[in-house]
Design brief:
five-stranded mixed sheet, Dna Topoisomerase Vi A Subunit, Chain: A, domain 2, about 325 residues, five-stranded antiparallel sheet
Length: about 325
């Protein structure tokens, strides 16, 4: 019966919780009353009440607090807590009369791969499924099909993960690409549109302070580490990670500059990429300057789709990696803006 008491008192206090909404059975979302959530974006709501066994718990994805509903009520409405204690006493449940450990002793477990994804993997889908057909059309190696997923409704999937992400559309099917740290903890995931959405890629962090880097769990740090923008591109290169944006130098939050080779997309007319490459050369990064023979292909996956093997691309990369003065000379030849 304790969960019914928790629900009763949660609904009593809900008028005090900004942007309070019920997401589904035993899952409620609102702005965190403990940290205030975002001070610059009043639409942010990253506090969640959720059910575990026969009790409610509170978790904030901004301040990372994870506490029992008893402790949550104690901090938000101490007067109402007295009534709550009485109700629990009547139920002959003394477990809530003892305060839970201090906040710092509570650590919300990071999502576990198998439990965190309530959606099917690509390799489990029928051969004629459109998501699997898309993955096959990109020539993604079969070994990775079990590590990629399909969400029929990406917004619903994000909600089920108890993560606040604004601007998501309903009924938006996407290929889901999970990001893990070196201990196989989920840190982020990217959704690639498979429907009519104009936003091709959406990247969602599990925690705001996570490094948004794909492929960390597959890296041998004793070897040279290649860095690309797109997670799909990284699947064709050995010991390769992806930053999920054009800011490749951000990889130094994870790895030392001396260990990495930056491989920007082959877009010499893209002003943003040209600027980032020029800055990277000035900062003495090892960087790939694509040769003239590759000028019609904008990224690694496009090279694969046009008949190049992974071995050929790897060889082109290694033979066209430059630093300092030589990098500047090759960069001047390559850029078209």
């Amino acid at each position: 019966m304790s969960v019914f008491i928790d629900r009763k008192f949660l609904l009593q206090i809900s008028p005090k919780l900004p942007k309070f909404v019920q997401k589904k059975d035993d899952l409620y979302n609102f702005r965190c009353p403990l940290c205030g959530d975002s001070s610059t974006n009043k639409t942010k709501a990253r506090g969640y009440i959720f059910r575990k066994s026969n009790n409610y718990f509170y978790k904030c994805h901004n301040c990372h607090v994870c506490i029992s509903f008893y402790n949550f009520l104690d901090k938000v409405d101490p007067e109402l807590l007295k009534e709550y204690q009485l109700e629990r006493y009547k139920e002959n449940d003394t477990s809530r009369h003892i305060k839970a450990p201090a906040l710092e002793e509570f650590k919300a477990p990071r999502p576990v791969f198998k439990k965190a994804f309530p959606i099917p993997s690509i390799d489990s889908l029928p051969e004629d499924h459109y998501a699997k057909a898309y993955v096959n059309s990109r020539k993604i190696p079969g070994d990775f099909h079990k590590t990629l997923y399909f969400a029929e409704d990406f917004k619903r999937f994000v909600d089920e993960m108890q993560i606040q992400k604004d601007g998501l559309q309903e009924n938006d099917p996407r290929l889901v690409i999970p990001f893990y740290d070196k201990d196989k903890n989920l840190i982020a995931f990217q959704g690639r549109a498979l429907g009519t959405s104009k936003l091709r890629y959406i990247t969602v962090k599990v925690e705001d302070d996570n490094n948004k880097v794909f492929g960390i769990d597959r890296i041998d740090e004793e070897k040279k580490i290649y860095v690309v923008e797109g997670p799909i591109d990284s699947l064709f290169i050995e010991n390769c990670v992806a930053t999920a944006d054009a800011n490749l130098p951000s990889i130094t939050r994870v790895y030392d500059k001396s260990k990495v080779v930056l491989i920007f997309d082959n877009e010499p007319r893209n002003k943003d990429i040209v600027k980032k490459m020029e800055e990277s050369i000035e900062e003495h990064y090892q960087i790939v300057i694509w040769p003239e023979m590759m000028e019609e292909y904008k990224d690694i996956n496009e090279m694969i789709l046009n008949g190049f093997t992974t071995e050929e691309i790897q060889d082109i990369i290694d033979n066209n990696t430059f630093v300092n003065l030589r990098a500047k000379m090759e960069f001047i030849r390559w850029k078209k803006v």
